[in-house]
Amino acid sequence: MEHAVERILGIEGGGTKTSWMLFAARGGKLQLLDEGSLAPTNFRLTSRARILEIWREMPRAVERVGAFLAGCGTPADRAELAKLCAEVWPGAAIVTGSDRESGFASAFGEGDGIAVNAGTGSSITGRHDGCVERAGGWGHVLGDAGGGYDLSLEMLRFVLRDYDLHRRGSELAQEVLRALGLNDLNELVRWAQTAGKMEIAMLAPLVFAAGTAGHTEVNDILRAGARVLAEYTCAVADRLEFRAPPVALLGGLFRGHSIYVAAYRRELAELLPTANAFVMEKPSALGAAWLALGQRPPLTSPVEKQAPEIAVAATEEINLRSLDLENLSPRELVDLFVAEEEFVQEALRAAAEQLAEGVSLVATALKNNGRLFYVGAGTSGRLGVLDASEIPPTFGAAPELVQGIIAGGVGALHRSIEGAEDDAHAGALAIVERGVRANDVVCGISASGRTPFVLGALRRARECGARTLLLTCNPADASSPNEFDLRIVLPTGPELLAGSTRLKAGTATKVALNILSTGAMVQLGRVRGNLMVELSATNEKLRARAVRLLMQLTGCDVETARARLARHGWNVRAALDGGDTAG
Description:
Blueprint: E1 6-13, E2 18-26, E3 29-38, H1 48-55, E4 64-69, H2 75-88, E5 93-98, H3 99-108, E6 113-118, E7 122-128, E8 131-136, H4 148-166, H5 171-180, H6 185-194, H7 197-201, H8 204-212, H9 216-240, E9 246-250, H10 252-256, H11 258-271, E10 276-279, H12 284-293, H13 330-340, H14 342-350, H15 352-367, E11 372-376, H16 378-395, E12 402-406, H17 424-433, E13 441-445, H18 452-463, E14 467-472, E15 486-489, H19 504-523, H20 540-554, H21 558-567, H22 572-578
Parallel strand pairs: 1-4, 4-5, 6-9, 9-10, 11-12, 11-13, 13-14, 14-15
Antiparallel strand pairs: 1-2, 2-3, 6-7, 7-8
């Protein structure tokens, strides 16, 4: 007899991300259909509206949903979470609970054991002979010992304590400042006073890097965190009378850092030598799906999603002119790089008509009270954020007029966020969360023209009614159907360092963004001649420039220019329009 097929969606939300897995269930077997990860969700810390926004990026046609979020600990929480699920999946059977339950289910199914979860926060859950015991999981204000937030906070405290004791700028302090883009420890203190749980927990990789490098005090911090988790594990085992428990280590701290696994095992061996600790590789969203199914089915190996056929983008091809790059002298290398820039000029000339259309498209949107959003990943995303950040001081525009969206968020400005560019759902969600509307324009930046995060964002922007354009360096896609309002192609060709699109492709992209934003601002009347009459004179260099501008435009002397600007709050446009009549 043929079994009916059900589509089951498992959701596990925590402080780092929200993971989901979509399965087809037939005859007690699960087959993986799709999966992804989105922004973090914590039932206590994330607004209900945002949870719904995130969930709406997941598959909708399902028969069962298992939603398990950090912070969902009481029956009332479960009921409220179920109501939220029903808004997105009104016809589905719904099971809700805490992420510690989905993690345990993923590790042990209906069996017995102890699950130790160390991610942004931490928790310990055990089951033996039908009895359940828990420890930790109290949240970052009063608990989360041994989790990423706790370890990062201890590291920051050490950095300040070390400075107070020795008045030295340690390498660890420098790494923290670099990672956060801050200039000194006073700025670090101000940042920490307003930073959220996840922002602080994002520093955990620095803790582990320092520990791996042999930093004595940081290793003390890691040992202390591991010790608390081991003590909690032992306490749970004692209460359950569990003499030789299997202990599953869950969460990013264990999966990503063998040094922490080793520290925990050493501490646990002292307290409970009969325990068997192992790192759990199965994703917790799988446990959420099991719980939604209401049983522990035998699992087949998840079916690998067929990888798309990869055609080599022009930017990924081998550059025959640089085959001997490693053997060049410094001068030969410089000459080669300079000669290669000719291809940037050629690419920009080839795209002149498209760039002109882009200037008109952006200017029209801005004139109609719209905004410009750049969307990119990696180098492309950083270039978009850079151009957006320079519009307010250059043209006196409001910060929200031109905005940059980068895959992986602010952390991706300073370091690579693994896998962020591959998530089309996250790109679409970013468009929703930024409030893109019909009179806006969204410019996707992708050297290959294929970045899922960028394409997902552009497609969602189209659904919102916004105008869309794609800026790419891959002419291979130029002949394919264009689903966006405009495609700007900059055929810069293969890079000297194969695939490194921060080189020619990055240079051409930066110039193209300069053209789009500056051209639009010119169309909006924010310059006079070729002068920045809307600049924000926020420092001495810019004030000196403002004085020179006013002198050039009015013919007045230095003192008159300074006095007029001072009367108008150092606003060049106001000083020009107000003349000498302002008092």
